[in-house]
Design brief:
heterotrimer; A mainly alpha; B alpha+beta; C alpha/beta; A: mainly alpha; MetI-like fold; 12 helices; globular; B: alpha+beta; Rossmann fold; OB fold (Dihydrolipoamide Acetyltransferase, E2P); 2 domains; 5-stranded antiparallel sheet; 8 helices; 20 strands; elongated; disordered N terminus
């Protein structure tokens, strides 16, 4: 098929994209630049309030930090699991895949509320710690950043594990034999062969986890609580409770922009990893 | 060792009663083989015969259930692959795709903690030995199949292995490239004096590369010896069939005749064949004759050692002519030097070329 | 499934279109709070409406704020015919002109409502009584709002902000108890800042019952409905009426501007306040506080009839609403970190 033919085929989809994706974004942008949602008058008030306010800037940083830490935590768990998957026989492989996908079959809301049961003052972790004598009093886990990261790690795990496993599964097993036969230790084989080759999967996973954790509205508000401020909850609050749509729009665009920046950086890293 | 001076200080490899089991099945059944210093031994056989399993056992990727692998008389079974002094060229070459050719070659040297300057010197020498010195900076993806194979060879040789294992090294290459590379590898191997085991399912490859061949079938070595010996005097009908082309002619032992037997062929001739094996009178036998061991006779020929057939087609193949014949229900192929025009199709007779020594096997010897 | 059942279903399936042909069924859409309200109105109200008035209602489960947002976004073409709203969003809806003018005379059952419960804006359909909920196995009964700032309560307290009606009026009551007023939150914020390091949780309103159930918090401010519901699930919880009095507000229904089913909407609201529906809704598992004078509220509700609601603390939402955005933002900032 010639180029023009491809264009003609892609055109309807392209127009639909424009209509359903670009247009709402444009409305969002113009709302953020107005005094109210009817766009009666232009104003930079909303943007001044978002970017000129230490509280809002701190919320942006909190959100990005939450995404980054969740990425690190999921990596820490997913990498060993992917290695086990790589080394395991077909039955264990299948088991790991099922375990990896299983969380996706329950809704985020259910998973989030289950974490209240686990992290609470009288939850599974605290009763275990106190009963075993490792702690004398319950530790605060719920409504803390570490607790939220712990929960998000479980919730977002499939997004890290699946691309990673897809990448490690593509590694030719004879590369590992080659490395071993050339005298490399297990550590060297992992560090010099497996990880570099799994890097595209790792970056894809990091991108998904970051974007998802940074915008995990339900988990952030239910597990994180009111002491931790993240942009998604602030956007919801401004849009749905306060009805300050320009401010909500400016915040939403700030959230989108900052997440896109990180995702873009990861993408660049991924492209280099493929070529490196 | 990588420098121009050739060495003959090879190492010898022994497999002594090696047995490998996969679950319920024995993949390798008590194989005993010796490879002399500097020799190339080819493990030849159909897929699933256990040749690759045997190779991976020598490499240390698989633990034998019984038996030993010895290098220069010392057992290496307890050693991990990296400590066995074994270099491997994999079927897929297994080059690290994210490293340059030079980095691939350096990999084993770095793992050994060699000083940087020494690594650089050795990488250059290894790449030069396989004539890839100008491709050191390239990634495997930017190299052709043949070039990748040379880099894989350089990587395996850079660690100065006592034993070089080649696992189907030419399987992924174009047929036209194979002969050149086979000769080149043989040349390099000779220069390095490294003892070598080659796994292949391709008899031509084994014939052109190997000093000796071991034909394997169902985990057992059927015959081991120089390629010409296996070709000329196959020990079993399987070897006769697997190494080279063979015509199977069925018949019955009619009489003992000095060093051989008079065999009454089902096709209607009585031929005299020498055989080191003993047969009872009246036993059913199978005569395995190479295409070049048979000859065409005119239809009016009256020799009792000739039998009737119909010539279907004659194909000129370089200096030779291949005749395709039908003798009763059997198909027969005959190869002769080409003199003049090929004969017209039609009725002919077939006879064993005088002086040719076809092999005789009991008919029960399955193939 | 037995053969007979299958036949029965088949017969019903065949009968349905016939039923539709015999008498034209009116279709309407009503917004309803997700969860308990949705379940209750589907089970109790919808069948009665169909039976009495041949009106088939489909529900659109939306929180009050979502109803306002959706109606606003629709800009003149209402996505549903009837709103159900708490006082705060009700005032927002009035300000935004989202409602048809309401005529109480079109409610045949209007006599069951206390005076003033149906006006030109809409009609009250349920009440909520807000006070303090505590775990009687862990804490003594608090006397009033001030007690929540004592160390023994503060360390077990779950705080939620001005995002909901019950949260807003509870915090206003606390402000009043601490020397502030309906419009002056300064004393409240000063005290919140003081106890902030020790409070057990600052949470989204939807998370509060879960936190209480899990023992993360042992005292919170909420409505009697939540208390009754949690206790029916075996959670040790009791309702305490503060010494300044429990606060009450009503949830009301309103007809959407430009609705095409105004007659059906009045029938829907009338059925909602009727004695049979209000009686059924007051019972397990719905635990609504009835606005119908003839229906007795459940045991947790500190009144024997809606007529007593005049004894409860109420609030002027037309004064609260303009200040609320500022309080929400201030609460976020004060509670951060």
């Amino acid at each position: 098929m010639n180029n023009a033919g491809v264009w003609r085929l892609a055109l309807p989809l392209g127009l639909a994209q424009l209509l359903f994706f670009a247009a709402p974004l444009l409305i969002l942008l113009s709302t953020s630049l107005a005094t109210d949602e009817n766009l009666t008058q232009g104003s930079l008030r909303a943007w001044r309030e978002v970017l000129g306010d230490a509280f809002h800037i701190q919320s942006v940083l909190n959100t990005l930090r939450l995404g980054a830490l969740t990425v690190l935590a999921t990596m820490l768990l997913a990498v060993p699991l992917a290695l086990v998957h790589m080394a395991a026989g077909p039955r264990v492989k299948r088991l790991i895949l099922i375990v990896a996908v299983l969380p996706l079959l329950t809704s985020v809301v259910v998973r989030t509320f289950s974490w209240i049961v686990i992290l609470g003052r009288e939850g599974v972790i605290n009763s275990t710690l106190v009963a075993s004598g490792l702690a004398t009093a319950p530790t605060a886990l719920l409504q803390t950043e570490p607790g939220l990261i712990l929960a998000l790690t479980q919730i977002e795990m499939p997004l890290m594990l699946l691309p990673l496993i897809a990448a490690t599964a593509r590694i030719d097993p004879s590369l590992l034999d080659a490395s071993t036969s050339l005298g490399a230790s297990l550590g060297r084989t992992l560090g010099r062969v497996v990880l570099p080759l799994a890097l595209p999967g790792l970056i894809a996973g990091a991108t998904l986890v970051f974007a998802s954790a940074a915008t995990a509205f339900i988990s952030q508000s239910v597990i994180g609580g009111g002491r931790l401020n993240y942009l998604p909850a602030l956007v919801w609050q401004q849009a749905m409770v306060v009805f300050d749509w320009p401010l909500a729009a400016a915040m939403a665009l700030t959230l989108m922009g900052s997440v896109l920046m990180v995702v873009g950086a990861l993408n660049l890293l991924g492209r280099n990893a493929r070529h490196a | 060792m990588l420098d121009a001076t050739p060495t003959n200080l090879g190492h010898c490899l022994d497999m002594d009663g090696v047995r490998v089991r996969y679950g319920q099945t024995l993949a390798v059944r008590d194989v005993t083989l010796s490879v002399a210093p500097g020799e190339i031994l080819a493990l030849l056989g159909p897929s699933g015969c256990g040749k690759t399993t045997l190779l991976r056992t020598v490499a240390g990727f698989i633990q034998a259930e019984a038996g030993q692998v010895l290098v220069d008389g010392r057992a290496i079974d307890h050693l991990p692959p990296g400590k066995r002094g074994v270099g491997i060229v994999f079927q897929s070459y297994a080059l690290f795709p994210h490293m340059s050719a030079a980095q691939n070659v350096a990999y084993g040297l770095e793992a050994r903690g060699m000083p940087k300057a020494e690594i650089i010197r050795r990488v250059e020498a290894s790449l030069a030995a396989v004539r890839m010195e100008s491709f050191g900076a390239r990634r495997p993806a930017a190299l052709s199949g043949g070039q990748q194979q040379r880099v894989a060879l350089a990587r395996a040789l850079a660690i100065e292995p006592a034993i070089l294992l080649l696992d189907e090294p030419f399987a992924a290459l174009d047929r036209s490239l194979r002969l050149d590379l086979q000769l080149e590898i043989k040349r390099i191997q000779r220069r390095f004096g490294v003892t070598c085991v080659l796994v292949t399912h391709d008899q031509d490859e084994a014939m052109s590369m190997a000093d000796r061949m071991a034909v394997m079938r169902a985990g057992v070595v059927e015959q081991v010896g120089p390629p010409t010996e296996l070709y000329d005097t196959p020990a079993t009908a399987f070897v006769a069939g697997f190494v080279g082309t063979t015509n199977r002619l069925h018949g019955r032992i009619e009489a003992r005749d000095g060093a051989g037997y008079a065999v009454r062929l089902d096709a209607g001739a009585t031929v005299t064949v020498e055989s080191p094996r003993g047969f009872d009178l009246g036993a059913r036998v199978m005569l395995c004759a190479r295409p070049e061991q048979l000859t065409l006779r005119p239809p009016e020929d009256t020799d009792p050692g000739a039998w009737p057939a119909r010539l279907r087609l004659s194909l000129p193949l370089g200096p030779a002519l291949i005749h395709d014949l039908e003798a009763g229900s059997a198909e027969v192929k005959i190869q002769q030097p080409r003199h003049g025009a090929p004969p017209p199709p039609g009725d002919v007779r077939i006879a064993i070329l005088p002086g040719a020594k076809p092999s005789l096997f009991s008919e029960g010897d399955s193939a | 499934m037995s053969l007979i059942n299958r036949r029965g279903l088949l017969a019903a399936g065949l009968a349905l279109p016939a039923l539709g042909a015999r008498a034209q069924t009116t279709q309407m859409t009503a917004a309803v709070y997700p969860g308990g309200w949705d379940e209750a109105l589907r089970a109790v109200l919808a069948p009665r409406l169909l039976q009495q008035h041949n009106v088939a209602v489909s529900f659109d489960p939306l929180f009050a704020v979502d109803q306002i947002a959706k109606a606003r976004a629709a800009r003149g073409t209402p996505p549903f015919d009837v709103f159900v709203l708490d006082p705060g969003p009700r005032v927002s809806g009035m300000d935004l002109g989202l409602f048809e003018t309401f005529d109480p005379a079109r409610l045949p059952s209007r006599a069951v409502l206390p005076t003033g419960y149906a006006d030109t804006v809409g009609a009250a359909v349920a009440a909520q009584v807000v006070g303090i909920a505590y775990n009687p196995q862990k804490l003594p009964k608090p006397a009033g709002w001030r007690d929540l700032f004592q160390p023994q309560y503060a360390s077990k307290l779950g705080l939620t902000g001005f995002g909901t009606t019950f949260g807003t009026i509870s915090l206003i009551e606390m402000a009043k108890a601490l020397g502030g007023s309906e419009t002056n939150m300064d004393p409240l914020f000063a005290e919140l800042r003081r106890i902030k390091p020790s409070v057990a949780a600052v949470a989204a309103p939807a998370a509060m019952p879960g936190l209480f159930q899990q023992g993360q918090i042992d005292v919170m401010y909420t409505n009697t409905y939540t208390v009754t519901l949690l206790r029916s699930r075996g959670v040790p919880i009791a309702f305490a009426v503060p010494e300044s009095g429990a606060a009450a507000f009503v949830t009301s229904m309103h007809i959407a501007k430009n609705s095409r089913n105004i007659a059906a909407a009045y029938q829907y609201i009338d059925a909602m306040i009727s004695t049979p529906v209000q009686s059924a809704l007051a019972l397990d598992p719905y635990f609504f506080v009835p606005v119908n004078k003839d229906v007795t509220p459940g045991a947790d509700v500190p009144m024997r009839s809606i007529s007593e609601i005049t004894n409860f603390v109420t609030h002027d939402w037309s004064r609260i609403n303009p200040l609320r955005a500022g309080w929400i933002s201030r609460f976020n900032r004060e509670m951060a970190g």
